[in-house]
Batch of 3 targets.
Target 1
Amino acid sequence: MRSPCWLFVLIFFLMPIFSWADETHNSPTEPPRRAKPAPLDAVFPSTEYLGPTIGVPNTDPIYPLTKAIWKGSPILKENDIRVYGWINPSYNLSTSKNSNVPLSYNIVPNRIELDQLVLRLERQPDTVQCDRIDWGFRLSNLFGIDYRYTTAQGIFSGQLLNHNKLYGYDPVEAYGQIYFPDVVEGLILTFGRYISPPDIEAQLAPQNYLLTHSLMFTYDIYTMTGINTSLKFNDQWTLLLGVHAGGDVATWNHASHNPSGQLMVRWVSEENNDSLWGGIDSLNKGHFKGNHDNLQEFNLTWTHRFSKEIHTVTEVYYLYQYNACLGGTCNFGPVKPYGGGGGCGTKIPGKSPVWGAVNYTEFKLTDKSFLSARLDYLNDVKGERTGFATQYMSYTLGITYAFTSLFSIRPEVRYEKAYHARPYDNGVRKYQSTFGVDAILRF
């Protein structure tokens, strides 16, 4: 697929139309909730702390596509079934010429690409009420270059693992939910394919602070297929328990690990200024299998609120697996300038550990903008994740500006380096500098 410059041209001409049609804001009156007050300002991607949020109302805007569909199908409106999405192109200037890897997602340097085109069908269960069992579901269909970071082996994975295509499709979320109000203070049962719960950045484009992702996020688990339960004990404590097939692999695939365990705990301080969210994301015997990674993952994220307008989020993780391949899951497609392909890397006997840490510090600038500062560290001890046994650091500064609730841009500058290897631009550089900008147009 050629560089889609037409996307930015299309967005430029559509901006006035979408600004005129921008009627997505809900009533300013805070709806009832069965939880602590929202800790963060509405300018940020989320007003809530990370983790399950039972007792929190659905305050998402009603986007234009949903409105149009509801006019023709009142039964969908009655059941609050929504259909919406976004277009997310990006451009970057880079000191690299062939590949920005291990940066993600905009891996092709000095070009415009389509990161994400997403169409989502969704119904959120009403967890504020305690009168009845309720239900929900989500199906998120993603097309773009970002699919290579969300792909699960066994689910349309041949696009990447057999052909190493730059563009592909992935049903990145496909799950159902049942809410039981009478189990303690509420229980949500989730079944299907869902995004890995712990990470700051394990979200699709509109829910992330920045265009690019931290090095540590690039190389951990993105989705699981399985079942989990979120159980709220009170406004401070929530427990998540689950079993799944392992990270980024379908239950029915020969590389799956059934069952793999999951146990996470969410704590919010009494004064609502701090939150901890962490535990075991994936745990089994830990052996590389079926040419696919089998990451054992342990995460902890601390969020501290200085005020609703300023907060900081810090995540640390530890990963490991046994007898894996250099560079991770095998990609049997052709070698491409942007990375990937060529089959399996050299086998690494024994245990391959990885340590990672990232900090985001967030500042509200105006009612339509905020500033993000990110510091990121990754120690790929044996090179199993990135293909290079080295430590990495990256520093990123970016601004998100929302012209309307339907259209926003995210310019950023980033510098990163490796300390004991040359992983950048296909193995020729120790460091990399980039300027990037993306646009998010919702529909």
Note: The mean pLDDT is 94.
Target 2
Amino acid sequence: MTILQICVLFVAAILGGTLNSVAGGGSFITFPVLLFTGVPPINANATSTVALWPGSVASTGAYREELAKQERTRLLVLGGTSLVGGVLGALLLLRTSQTTFVRLVPYLLLMATLLFAFSGPITNRLRRRNVETKKERFSWSGLVGIALLQLVIAIYGGYFGGGIGILMLATLGLMGMENIHEMNALKTLLTSFINGVAVITFIIAGAVVWLQAILMVAGAIIGGYGGAYFARQIDPRLVRGFVILVGITMTIYFFLRG
């Protein structure tokens, strides 16, 4: 790596970590930058996942109280489904050729960008349904259905992952959950599971470019804990708008490049 590439990767990781802690969408920054610096597509995706995962785990700690209120059966079923799906998605990525993945990149970015763009209205609608005094009814049939949906989301998450947060919020809403804070807590935990097993799979397969990964982990941690303070001083709508703009720009670029 050149000094310029080191600086670009480090700054991208700081920005990605910051965005993930404030609005999400950090992979819109880290994944393309890894590609631009010469990392092969599949390795870039694996390395980006490794770089941003510690921040996701750290975010889970902030939801300790909300997670303590979750039904144990729900946690076990959805957690187990997420682990299985995350591994399957990661293995599917590793079995995809670099050429095929390059062709899929613009479509994956487009889907992730659309999911992120519409996450605000969906989350606001779920928040309006928030009736904390209403007890959620436990339904085995409903849980099985959501577990199957979660398996699909987890496979996508292990494969690429952009936008899985809003997909999970939507499915948890279908399940009957109404407290947006508890939903966010469960979503964050399940995301950590999906990315965690994907990270392990990528490491075992030797798909991670370690010099870039270590550099970006350091940057993402700085961004997640330090940069987020400054980002919170900015109107959240501007932060979201920036992420969407980056997503659209990267999508157009990779469509034209292909």
Note: Residues 122 and 170 are 7 Å apart (CA to CA).
Target 3
Amino acid sequence: MARKLEELGGEGLGGTTSITVVAIASFIGTAIEWYDFFLYGTASALVFNRLFFPEFDPLVGTLAAFGTYAVGFVARPVGGIVIGHYGDKIGRKAMLMLTLLIMGIATFLVGLMPTYAQLGVWASVILIVLRLAQGFGVGGEWGGAVLMAVEHAPAGRRGFYGSWPQTGVPAGLLLSTIVFSIFAAQPEAQFLSWGWRVPFLLSFILIIVGLFIRMRIAETPAFARVRETQTLARMPIIDVIRTYPKNVLLAMGARIAENGFFYIFSVFVLTYVTQALKMPRGTVLNAVSVAAAIELIAIPSFGALSDRIGRRPVYLFGAAFAAIFSFPFFWLLDTKQDVLVWLAVILGLNLAHGAMYGPQASFYSELFGTRVRYSGASLGYQLASVLAGGLSPIIATALLAGSGGNPAPIAVYMIGMAIITLIAVYVATETVSHDIAAEQPQERRILAEERGTVAP
């Protein structure tokens, strides 16, 4: 199996090294994978509570649906560790092909799922298994996608090109929200009967497109150099913990606000607006769609800005704005005015999340050496996703239920996440001038120990 994957990741397929083509391919492939992942989040807020947990109170049913949604986040670190290991041993490209298949097949099968009325509790069990597969796939995908862009990018442009696969996130969110909105406009009975399934089934077409695109890009120069010099890490996940423990923790801290806020702005907001404020679901779905469309420009803009002024200043701005905006976000929603609901989601996703997510790919990649970069970036990124994005909709929904509909405790919780990220990014060193192809001293020591020689 490993040999087949290595052949798939090699240069025999005529892959291109053009940074523009690589960046576009990374963007499209990532957008497809996140389309799959976000469909589940939208369905959890609007459909799954009724089809798979019908015996609960609506808000409690939503909590149960978000529970199955969070399972995907629990699987993400496992995917990051396993896929990251082979990404550092075999190559970035082969792993991207594998994760796309895992995500796409799992999403397609969700569209074929029997409901609670047809299969009882086993329907919920199967749903959880498929969500685990989604989480595993997306957990391994992120590291490979950003490294393909960052390791191909010229010095001084890593922030900009590294933001392209990041832009695949709002693209996937936009595509999934638009497709879901089209079918959500159906009559209620028709939508709950079969309409919600079609967006999941369309994933099959996207798999074919994504595989074709990813087959056309070459392995990264940085990894190819490590492979040629036979300096591959024997146990990448162990090596990254031994050599970069501080950077793994700082990456986790930097991720908390970015990831936690994103799922409040894009997923929990669906529940809050439709259930707590009793507004039409079309209003908030349209707001998320418009915000995601604008973020297609915001994320690469912040990535490019980080090339000029550094990763940390841009990231710190996003975290600070997130903290300041926590209470105003709910004040705008509570007006129940369509325009102000749109404004809340647009400002949250673009100025808070976008400013952190734009420089994140290059920032995380520059924190680790090439031999363990896939494992290191994935570990910090995905471990935090369990604590942040995986739990934030659940915690926010529980706080809403416990406060009798008062969003103030949720805003306080959001500020707490922002403070963690502010501290982590402030403590981290600036990485914009790092030579990501250079062998780091701590990695030379590990390599010398493996070979029984003295490190220079």
Note: The longest helix spans residues 19-51.
